[in-house]
Amino acid sequence: MEASAVELDLQRSVQAVLRQLRAQAPDLQSSQGMWRWSLHKKVDRDPGKSPALVRILLRELEKAESEDTRQVVIPLLHTLMYVLTKATGIPEELYQRTYTLCMRLLTLPSPYCTIALDCAIRLKTETAAPGTLYQRLVIAEQNLRSELYPYQERVLLFVDPELVSPSVCSALLLEIEAAQIQQTPEACMRHVVSHTLQAALGEACRTEALQRKLKASPRRALERYFHAVVAAVEQMASEPSSSRVGHLERLEEIYCSLLGPTAAARGRCGGDPLQDRPPNIPLPSPHITLHLWTDEEQLWKELVLFLRPRSLLRLSADLEALDLQGLLPDRTLARESVLSTDSGIERDFPLGAEEPPTTGSPEMEHAGLQRKGGIKKRVWPPDILMPGSWDGPPGLHRRTGRPSGDGELLPGVSRLHTARVLVLGDDRMLGRLARAYHSLRKRETQMFCLTPRLSLQLYYIPVLTPEPPSLDTSRNVDPFILDVITYYVRMGTQPIYFQIYMVKIFFSDLSQDSAEDIFLTELKVKIQESKFPKDVSSPRRRGAVESPGAELSLGYQKALLSHRTREVTISLRATGLVLKALPARDTDDHTCLNVSVTEVVKSSNLTGRSFSTVTNTFRAANIQIQSQDQRLMTLVLDKDNRRTFRDVVRFEVVPCPEPCSGAQKSKGLWLSSHQQEMERTRAKPKPLLMPINTFSGIVQ
């Protein structure tokens, strides 16, 4: 296909994506993913189209910037960065144009400036050492062992077997298995070496001959080439002042050792006919595990299993000081008594004995006389239990070269693991995720063994319709679902923080203890037909028409933009209520309850008394509702019939507080009553927010 025809075909595909991004009709918006997927597939099948697609996307981004059509900026940026991560042979001039554009976008409000800054940092790294983005992504997602880039990631896909049919689960499992069969560690290492050498050497690299040589190499030799390439790229990426010529010379040495100096020289001098188009070096999909969510503790167990292999091999002294009973079920594995012959001073240790400190790190700068393994009082950082300390929302403080949400919460303990938890379902699945997240955070206040080393990223794909009738469950499945999941977990870096609400429930039976639960999306209240047992003996006037619903007393704190406290108390007759915690629009406030009350209105006419209903809505920060007559209530949380509470006479809804540790709870025992009151006034409980990653976050 000629160059003009290629550009015309890609231009049509990009325009189709843009039309659907600007469309308001839901039927058009639902197919956005399919058009974007087909656009990426065109480049995957023919990598030679990548420079043309980059030019088209840049042109559309510059046009959107000049016309101030911001709704297409973030999707186009994501598409552009995805192409640049996978492609090789992109001219330097296109990288510079993209970087300049991202720097201009920094003047826009969040989330545009946040995403533009992240793209600019990654572009600067890629131009300094071509192939860095691809290499780091594959190493982390495929859990390839590398001392210079020791990060590991895993995607945990959770589905509810009661919400997703067995045929859909089978199709997902087939796609994941088919991808992982082709993505062996050896194949991924070959991809990294081939992509890096092609990105650095350009047309001088005989990629097809290189791939044949790598495929014929034994595992030990392949690992040697892989580690040599990673070392060259990481040294160049971490030292901006390094010589670009020296970097290319190191990679050329690796290239010559693979193909031999004669074959390599023929490629540089053009002695052999080069391939008409660059060979396809695929970007492997991340390591995904599929789980049927049947147990409340399943998320915790899977996160522990993700961390356990490395913790059994090597534990730093800081981690050994933690309570790891929840991480290692077998107490005999937690610690072994060994004879120590070291001096106990940290600087006397050889560098290879522990995690290798990086150049310029705090460990190297403050390598003074520090006692190793001594008994000392541990002081946790003041914000260790804050939501941001768990997932590390990406923002202006993100560092280059590391996965989002990483960092050090404790000295010497790095977050090398990233668990990307993706749930597939509806509001019921979101509610289950919220309960698991709350349980996990509560458990961490007691054990504190996952938080220092694990970055937890949450994702959600809604399933609103039943399975398509033409779903193919044969072995020849289309990887569309897997590709959509992969694109989402890679490019969805902007979290939206959702308030989790706690409900305390009181029942009509006084002998029954009150119950507590949490919800994320909504709480629905229905009025039962049954009454209190004492109502059986109560007389009713003959001929009286019984009003529908129940007489309710509502007390709530009104949600105001000024955050001032305004208490409201009303009594009314209603047939039902719905408390929604999620806003109707993405730009609304996410930290209040939208309450809809179906109120009963009495009216009198010539035919007698009649009743009608009207729906009233208001916003509340918290609310208490009690039945004033003999009618009881039924509560349904997050539209999940499995979480139904009957015979309720009263309930209270408040923002779920951040779980506090036992040390914080016992602190008040040592304070006087006046000090306790001052402590409560000064330190209000912070609300528990659950971050769910999206492509753009909240667009103001």
Q: In percent, how much strand structure appears in the residues? A: 15-25%
Give the C-level CATH assignment of the domain at 501-530 and 549-655.
Mainly Beta
The CATH homologous superfamily of the domain at 501-530 and 549-655 is called Probable inorganic polyphosphate/atp-NAD kinase, domain 2
Mean pLDDT: 79
Low confidence ranges:
310-408, 467-477
Radius of gyration, Cα only, in angstroms? 30 Å
DSSP strand tally? 17
Q: Termini distance?
A: 43 Å
The CATH topology of the domain at 501-530 and 549-655 turns out to be Tumour Suppressor Smad4
Q: What composes the largest sheet?
A: 9 strands, antiparallel
Structure description:
With 700 residues, the chain is of the alpha+beta class. It has helices at residues 3-22, 26-29, 32-45, 50-67, 73-86, 92-105, 112-128, 132-141, 166-182, 185-201, 207-216, 219-238, 244-259, 261-269, 298-313, 317-320, 362-365, 387-391, 427-446, 480-491, 662-667, 673-682, and strands at 152-159, 288-292, 408-410, 413-414, 417-425, 454-462, 494-499, 501-507, 515-519, 522-531, 550-558, 567-580, 593-605, 608-627, 631-637, 644-655, 689-694. Among the domains are: 1-128; 501-530 and 549-655, Sandwich (Tumour Suppressor Smad4). Helix content is 40%, strand content 21%. The strands form four sheets. Strands 8, 9, 10, 11, 12, 13, 14, 15 and 16 form a nine-stranded antiparallel sheet that branches. A hairpin with an 8-residue loop joins strand 11 and strand 12 (567-580). It comes from Phyllostomus discolor.
